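From the pipeline queue, job 12 of 40. The input is one protein chain; the requested action is below.

Action: predict structure.
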Amino acid sequence: MDHNSPTLGFLLHDVARLLRKRFEQNARESGLTRSQWQVLAYLAQNEGINQSGLAELLDIEPITLGRIVDKLQALKLIERHPHPTDRRVWTLRLTPAAQRKISEARKIGDATRAEALVGLSSVERQQLVNSLQVLKSNLVAACDRPAVNERRAQNG
């Protein structure tokens, strides 16, 4: 590989960053930030999860999520409910207004993806998704094993 060409990691990072940036541009009129959209999207897939579990899924600090949830609750998009068996824990639920926002986000996401995928055939689009799913699966499995340098130290 040419040392001047971008590496897979940098290229994936740049594509993800640009997708987020373009989504934010397309969603500017919605009144929500990308972080708020992300919390709504993850909560839609994990309705009833507690805040610490959602923070872990989002890979953000619980205090950061707490501030986002406070804002979404003030906007009447999220409700906090007491956990049935642990009074220290709150579970999160979407409101009907959030369901409308999520529908709006899907449309914005579809438009953003369409912009990103211009020039790729439907077969190429499916190959891209399949390849990324393989990469993700490989990395999930790899993260459960010792790091390469740790294995070298153990074997060496």
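Job complete. The chain has one domain: 8-118.
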